[in-house]
Design brief:
It is a single chain. The protein has a 5-stranded parallel beta sheet with strand order 1-2-3-7-6, with helices on both faces. It has about 260 residues and is of the alpha/beta class. Strand 4 and strand 5 form a beta hairpin. The protein is built from 9 helices and 7 strands, in the order H-H-E-H-H-E-H-E-E-E-H-H-E-H-E-H. The protein is about 40% helix and about 10% strand. It has one domain: Thiamin diphosphate (ThDP)-binding fold, Pyr/PP domains (Rossmann fold), CATH 3.40.50.970.
């Protein structure tokens, strides 16, 4: 990991220190994806979070929201000190993102399977209103068990929503085990292609690969796009990487938090 990836993880840890609990694994598999989207792809204005021509980003796997909070704070959508109140009574930052409460959040998510449906509606609205903004929906591979995802995919394909990009955070784990043991989805690339999407597959922690694929995406055409990002749940912390027990922690003591901090030095 380079300096920026480590600094963003430090921001996440500052939030974990507040309430000592949260979705650790899914948060750390997401950071490079979100980093490149905000640094190199999305159009936005932190001073005008609802600027009408902004690109829309929906984090459908809402339990990974601390990664998004860290990016939003880093860009000034809200003060970084807010991270230190994560999940406190007087904080705007809850365990799942809330639209209308947190600047930069486009949809309240966390009940899995809803984000793509919302994204399809937003992308369709852009076409109807002749707007150039793009809609990006980030989903997890475990979330793809939800049937509503595939209903939404069929709708996106039928309407030829080339302004819609689905990013799959494929870390091969969900809340209680390997995705292949819960429901074996087989080849995700083949599935998305069968549903009429243009599909790419890359290393979701490779900054250069992410930048390259996003910069070369066809922004016009007849197909929505899926980017399958192969990631590691808990990336950056060897004892958490690829470990389903680190999907969520209800309590983290000082010793553990200090250990995690030292790994980022």
């Amino acid at each position: 990991m380079d300096k920026r990836s480590k600094e963003l993880r430090k921001l996440v840890l500052s939030a974990f220190k507040s309430d000592r609990r949260g979705h650790i694994g899914p948060t750390f598999s997401l950071i490079e994806i979100l980093r490149v989207l905000f640094d190199s792809f999305l159009k936005f204005n932190p001073e005008k979070p609802i600027w009408k021509d902004r690109d829309r980003l929906i984090l459908s796997k809402g339990h990974g929201c601390l990664a998004l909070y860290a990016i939003l704070a880093d860009y000034g959508f809200f003060d970084k000190s807010e991270l230190e109140k994560f999940c406190k009574y007087d904080s705007i930052l809850g365990g799942h993102p809330e639209y209308g409460k947190v600047p930069g959040i486009e949809a309240s998510t966390g009940a899995l399977g809803h984000g793509l449906a919302i994204g399809v509606g937003i992308a369709l609205a852009a076409r109807i209103n002749k707007k150039a903004y793009r809609t990006v929906v980030i989903t997890g591979d475990g979330e793809l068990n939800e049937g509503s995802v595939w209903e939404s995919a069929m709708s996106a394909s039928m309407h030829k929503l080339s302004n819609l990009i689905v990013v799959v955070d494929k870390n091969n784990l969900q809340s209680y085990g390997l995705t292949r043991d819960v429901i074996d989805m087989g080849s995700l690339k083949s599935k998305w292609e069968a549903f009429g999407f243009e599909v790419f597959e890359i290393d979701g922690h490779d900054i250069q690969a992410l930048e390259k694929i996003l910069s070369n995406l066809p922004h016009t055409g007849s197909k929505p796009i899926t980017i399958i990002c192969n990631t590691i749940k808990g990336k950056g912390f060897d004892f958490a990487e690829g470990n389903a027990n680190w999907h969520h922690k209800s309590y983290m003591d000082d010793e553990l938090l200090n250990k995690m901090s030292k790994l980022l030095e």
